[in-house]
Amino acid sequence: MKKMIFSAVALVAFSFAGMANEVKEKKVETKTENKKVEKIKVKTNCAIAYLEDFERLENLGLTFEAAGAIAFHNYQKCTGTN
Amino acid sequence: MKKIIILLFLTINSYAQIQSGKIEYKLVIGYDEKLSNDAILKPYLEKAQEGAKQISFFLSFNKEASFFKMNDFVKDENTEFAKAFSVATNSYYTLADSEKKIKQVDNHFGQFIVNYNEKTEWKLENETKYIGEHLCYKATSEQIVINSKGTFKHPITAWYCPNIPFRFGPKGYTALPGLILELQERNLIYGAFKIDLKKENDIIAEPKKGKVLTEEEYNKIISKPSTF
Known about the structure:
The structure holds two protein chains of two kinds.
Chain A: H1 2-59, H2 64-79
Helix pairs in contact in A: 1-2
Chain B: H1 2-16, E1 20-29, H2 33-36, H3 41-51, E2 56-62, E3 65-70, H4 77-85, E4 91-95, E5 100-107, E6 110-117, E7 123-131, E8 134-147, E9 150-161, E10 179-185, E11 188-198, E12 211-214, H5 215-223
Parallel strand pairs in B: 6-12
Antiparallel strand pairs in B: 1-2, 1-11, 2-3, 3-4, 4-5, 5-6, 7-8, 8-9, 9-10, 10-11
């Protein structure tokens, strides 16, 4: 009888622990999703800035190479990838 | 008078014995009205001007060929801007008796060997100045830039020294009657600060690393902005 009660208590305890883990996992998943969305937003804004820089530099008579290199360096700085 | 003639002959003769050499150039990014008047680009230019103090190049040459390349340096935000403004990642290989040139490219599009032909129409001026012990003459030309916004012309000034009888210079510029010790292309100035002339013949190897392209093929790639 004692053994049965112990087993039942243990089962309930484990299932609560399992549920808690599930909640944690969902929170982590949401956080990861948010981070991904944030990263995409940053990348999009930086890409727009890249195109604007590229055009602005071309307008001032820079070569494709120089305009591209300056704009790309700025893009890397913007996304934190340099 | 005899002494002067003998001295002059000895000087010319000693330079005639030069078989190869290596020149080191400092980079200076000067003022540019258009760039400085643009509120967004002005800070980039200022960072590049500061970073340029850390950037130098070398030109190795012999009687047949030359190779111009950036020296290694410590990277920071300013030097990266300077590198971008001067497209310093490009190296140039030129031949003494040909307009055929090679540009070795290493940028965010990849590594390329670009074969191109270029003949600069130089105008020889009477102005002279000394760079170190070398009497140099001024030559001028125009850099013609064609991009998606139109055609632009920027001034080029070269100071070449006939007493170093090699027809090479920085950034693939050639065909002057003497080595170019100072070159200004728009607001980019390449000034020699170390001159090493040798009586031995150093070998100048043709660059090979990168996908081989014509100038047209390369321009097609770089004329489109990067896709991210």
